[in-house]
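Dear H.,

Thanks for agreeing to be a second pair of eyes. The structure we're designing against is below in token form, covering all 240 positions.
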């Protein structure tokens, strides 16, 4: 299992686009973007309205697999402020069942800052959180954390793109920069930003931990010059 250490805490990035924190028996996810399909439908973009139940179902399965007692959702849990009101009964019931297993902490994001999630779903809402030396926020800080501290965030939906067998392949990834970790988007209906894009350059050299099927792969990224660092197997598996 892939593991990293931030602020003395051992964390496990999962290929399922979540982070497992054994010491806290916690799953950390970011950018669920629940009810994105219904939000887009309001603008005439008609998509199958099943993104929320799929996202909640995957989160429930992960929580059961790891026997999670806490779930931290790092912002943009809903695609817009009215999302909690539109959430279908099946997804709402699934969230209620999940909350019986694990206490849910909702960190506010830029999409759902005024969603009043706790009025519609179980759990606590926070602007940001500090837990055992780790700052849990939606958007990464521009400066590194203080000595002895770490930061975990979402917001950017990072993906890593590379060419394999003449085709461009894109996979969700974590970005690790010193004591800062950016999570991939967990939501079913989410896009992504290339991990080599300029918005990440202020982190300097950084690692992309790529989610590919049931495996994780690491690449070191240098601003404007990505290159491979370490593989579990040949990276051609990413093209499968």
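And this is the sequence the design step returned. I haven't edited it by hand at all.
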């Amino acid at each position: 299992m892939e593991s990293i250490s931030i602020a003395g805490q051992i964390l496990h990035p999962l290929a399922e686009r979540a982070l497992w924190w054994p010491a806290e028996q916690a799953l950390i996810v970011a950018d669920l973007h629940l009810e994105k399909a219904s939000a887009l439908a309001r603008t005439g973009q008609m998509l199958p309205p099943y993104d929320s139940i799929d996202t909640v179902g995957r989160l429930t399965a992960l929580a059961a697999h790891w026997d999670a007692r806490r779930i931290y959702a790092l912002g943009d849990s809903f695609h817009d402020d009215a999302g909690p009101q539109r959430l279908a009964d099946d997804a709402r019931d699934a969230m209620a069942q999940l909350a019986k297993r694990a206490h849910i902490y909702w960190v506010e994001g830029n999409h759902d800052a005024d969603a009043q999630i706790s009025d519609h779903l179980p759990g606590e809402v926070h602007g940001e959180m500090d837990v055992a030396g780790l700052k849990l926020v939606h958007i990464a800080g521009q400066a590194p954390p203080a000595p002895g501290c770490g930061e975990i965030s979402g917001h950017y939906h990072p993906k890593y793109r590379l060419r394999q067998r003449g085709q461009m392949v894109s996979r969700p990834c974590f970005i690790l920069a010193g004591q800062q970790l950016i999570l991939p988007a967990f939501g079913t209906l989410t896009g992504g930003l290339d991990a080599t894009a300029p918005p990440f350059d202020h982190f300097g050299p950084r690692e992309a931990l790529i989610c590919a099927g049931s495996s994780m792969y690491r690449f070191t990224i240098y601003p404007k010059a990505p290159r491979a660092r370490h593989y579990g197997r040949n990276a051609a598996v990413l093209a499968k």
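Two observations from my side: The two ends are 21 Å apart (CA to CA). Residues 4-239 form a domain with the Purple Acid Phosphatase; chain A, domain 2 fold (CATH 3.60.21).

Warmly,
E.
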